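Study both lines:
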Amino acid sequence: MQTLQFDFSYPRYAFGKFLGRMYPPLHWSSGLSCLRYKEAPEPVLPNEEWVKIKVTYGGICGSDMNLIYLHDSPSASPFTSFPFTIGHEAVGTVIEAGQHVKHLHPGDRVVVDPILSCAARGISDPCAACRRGDYSLCSRMTDGAIAPGLLIGACRDTGGSWSPYLVAHQSQILQLPENVDDLNGVMVEPFSCALHSVMRNPPANHDTVLVIGAGTIGICVVAAIRALDIPCRIMVLAKYDYQTQLAVHYGADEVIRITRGYQYIDEAARLMDARVLKPVIGPPILQGGADLVFECVGRRSSMNDALRFARSGGKVVLLGLASILDQIDWTSVWLNELDIKGSFAYGLEDFQGKQMRTLAIAIELMKSGKVDLSPMVTHRFPLERYREAFASVVNKGKQACMKVVFEP
């Protein structure tokens, strides 16, 4: 089968880091990069508790592009195993089930929780994080019956959704109801990332919430807040017209367009009834601001905005891509006693009086009609047209591109 794999080698890594800065498409258009479009054997079931899935759609996540661009911190490398097939956003159909799998059968339409925690690794005595339901914080992601990997799409034994087939442990599989279509299915995983951040850091009804970034995760944060019936005020920082339209569609009260210069800071301050103060040098700062900020980009400018726009005693939740950033001004964290909280993936949440996996809650919200994320899938490509797919992601403003998926 044809796959898109990440195959690390020092020469290819050096090539990408050096020449990729001058011409970024080299990361996916050159045979000398770490990205390889290649024939690979179909993944096999590691044991009888696993299932094999034929992929219908495999989403392209911002973290995947971060990987291809070689922006990931080397500190994440122990939690991968090379070469691995990329892709952790997946909807598909079960085609094979191990003998010990009881609740899944060939033909079932499913989505995958890609986190490879203790259960998937066959570890009978789970770690403390897995016992409390924080599977994304598992401390055994290099142990057990399969190769190291944070998740499917970063482990050489499982495959990934950028290929026709992958395998997953039965504990990772959730069935899709008939009234949840495949386009919503491929959005379950990214929506769950946003849902997890909102449910672990819920806005109060009277709060002003600022969402920085109107890409997939930023819009999903807006959609999650509204799907949970939280009537807070939501403001969004967005770059493009189509992002503005989607933000409003999913429930934002105001959208501020990011512009060159500092005009958008003045506009945000006006809407939040904050004061703009001018330092002797450097960008303006604010007195006042949002009660809760969701940072959904992970760049230096967006991080500085997140810290700048939070009120004294406010909270900043970091969902943006992990990377090594310099020139972040942390003064406001100290001066305003800000609460900074990271948010990664998903786990168990309290929902309607019981504990449920985040992905199960996402599916329930889709099933009940609280949210329809299918309009966010704007581009679909067969796997062999991966260069066009990545070009669409990179030129998102010109192509009004929100979510790109592969149809392997």
User: Anything to note?
Assistant: Residues 2-187+367-406 form a domain with the Quinone Oxidoreductase; Chain A, domain 1 fold (CATH 3.90.180.10).
